[in-house]
Amino acid sequence: MMQSLKGRVVLVTGAAKRIGRGIALRLTREGARVAIHYSTSEAEARATAAECGGAPLFRANLENVAEIERLFSEVEQHFGRLDGLVNNAARFTRKDPLEITESDWDFVHSVNLKGTFFCCQRAAKGMLARDGGHIVNISSLGGLRAWPEHTHYCASKAGVIMMTRALAQAWAPKITVNSVAPGVIPFGEPDDRVKRLIAKTPAGRAGTADEIADAVVFFLTASDFITGQTLAVDGGLSQK
Ligand SMILES: NC(=O)c1ccc[n+]([C@@H]2O[C@H](COP(=O)([O-])OP(=O)(O)OC[C@H]3O[C@@H](n4cnc5c(N)ncnc54)[C@H](OP(=O)(O)O)[C@@H]3O)[C@@H](O)[C@H]2O)c1
User: Fold this and answer.
1) Which residue(s) pair with 112 in the sheet?
2) How far apart are CA 70 and CA 80, in angstroms?
3) Domain-embedded: residue 237
4) I need a labelling partner for 123 at 20 to 30 A (CA). Which of 63, 65, 99, 142 fits?
5) Which residue's CA is the closest to the ligand 1 atom numbered 2?
6) Is the C-beta atom of 19 inside 6 A of ligand 1?
7) CA nearest to 228, candidates 113, 131, 137
8) Could you give the CA distance from residue 110 to residue 102 in angstroms, rounded to a whole number?
9) Domain assignment present for 105
10) Any catalytic annotation for residue 38?
């Protein structure tokens, strides 16, 4: 049976703008008590928090495990619990794989894979000690399809998908761990590369943050019988 989000505490990382903001607004509309995480976008985070009925704000650089520990302690102190986690924060860069340096690699992996893992781990410690919970990792079409100029990003997101499967087993049945893989979700005028991807999308259009939020709400409210899954919200592009 689907569970209601009313009164449930959900932390959304990278919630200041774009997809994360859309997820936070949607969860608020569903009745959740949302914790807004941001790193550098303070003004946007304040605006999103206000739109989410005065939701509390938490700043942390997710590259750093000590900051992740502090973030979750602050959220748990504020609300007394944490029922859901949406790992949305990530970095995206483009570079010829022959040119990628160690710091280019770490720039992406330190947030997308390492940061996401330690957020899952820290959330799970609290959830396992209380009533369990739901974790949703935002991966990417790039974790399912190979994009040569984004090799490092694709590898990080494929890692998120496999981590989702492994952690789902590790923490069942108390915690479900699932993933949403967005296709093309542009903000502002798309560049030519993005326009070509949209043209290839079977749905014939780009997606919206609210369509990603639909899938997030589904996983946050689903029973413990749905875990370890990745749902592509991509207008069918992953099927080509
Ligand atoms: N947009 C798309 O078309 C698309 C497609 C496929 C997958 N996705 C995935 O969907 C999610 C959201 O996408 P988006 O385009 O909305 O993302 P985005 O705007 O590129 O990034 C979301 C947020 O991540 C936060 N972040 C980055 N580095 C951080 C760090 N070191 N510590 C803490 N937070 C950090 C940033 O917070 P601050 O701004 O506060 O620093 C940023 O606002 C990401 O996981 C992305 O990979 C997006």
Assistant:
1) none
2) 15
3) no
4) 142
5) 185
6) yes
7) 137
8) 11
9) yes
10) no
Count of domains for the chain: 1
H/E element, 41: none
pLDDT in tens, 3-55: 899 999 999 999 999 999 999 999 999 999 999 999 999 999 999 999 999 99
SS3 content of the chain, % helix, strand, coil (to 5): 50, 15, 35
170 in any annotated domain: yes
pTM given for the model: 0.99
Judged by DSSP in three states, 104 sits in helix
Convert the pLDDT of each residue in 169-228 to its tens digit.
Answer: 999 999 999 999 999 999 999 999 999 999 999 999 999 999 999 999 999 999 999 999
Listed residue (152, 87, 79) closest to 122, CA to CA: 87
Instruction: Tell me which residue of 70, 69, 74, 81 sits closest to 57, measured CA to CA.
Output: 74
CATH number at residue 14: 3.40.50.720
Q: Which of 118, 153, 171, 219 is catalytic?
A: 153
Structure confidence at residue 170 (pLDDT): 98
Query: Ligand 1: distance of its center to the CA of 1 in Å?
Result: 31
Question: Is the CB of 62 inside a 6 Å radius of any atom of ligand 1?
Answer: yes
Q: State the residue range of the domain holding 43.
A: 9-231
